[in-house]
Amino acid sequence: MKTDSIFYRIFQCYPQSFFELLGCPSVSSQYQFTSIEVKQLAFRLDGIFLPSPTDPDAPFYITEVQFQPDDDLYYRIFAELGLYLRQYQPSHPWRILILYASRSVEREQPHQFQEFLDCGRVTRLYLDELDTSANSFGISLIQLVVASAQTAVDSARVLLQQARETLPPSPIQRDIIELIETIVVYKLPQASREEIATMLGLAEWKETRFYKETFAEGEQQGIQQGLQQGLQQGLQKAQRDFALRLQAIGYDTAAIAQILDLPIAGVEALLTSFAPRLQPPQGLEEEG
To answer: Cα separation of 42 and 53, whole Å?
Structure first.
């Protein structure tokens, strides 16, 4: 299973789970989960929670999920943080949450980063040490990712029941239930999705009017978002091509900005927006 992508899907579908890990679930509605590229070395912050701009003191959170030992992890995290701060100059304070499978996976590099790790802005959590007595849906959902194949089906059934009872009938409930099913599919690669749906009691649920209507709604939203994104990219490319032609015949950036009715920074971004993506130096590859 590609655990990091599964975790980011959990945070996307149910952001409260992230803040349950931090012990402050009530603030989850004030954050948006996204990913952001740091261009200089082609780094991508795969998981970042951005707070509401109306609360300047609320921190933004960079998240990392690590299930394999990686001697370069802290070098990469703090390099990404520094580049992000330099490029975006956010007004909110930074925080980092690193979610490890266990302590044995961590490689601290104390000579370089101990002061960072002790500064109070970095939280390290170990999945095998999480408190399971809190009856937290979000933490239970996260722990399903690392559950054994023998216990995954029973744990998933409990989570599915909780999702039906605690989440309102909506596309969010559907997405959470399908995410739970997907995790079990990864756990039991020999079983078909239909067999797993039967094990989990989902076969009848997928025939309900609610599921069919919300599935159709989500599909339509995806089509609309794809069309809007395509139109936006097409407009940007047309603007860039025109800007390049103007640049080629001698117009400077300020003149191009005036012709296109864009800020100078916008023109500069256009002229580089479709450039080939740079590869990171050896030893600084993106997390796979």
So the answer is: 26
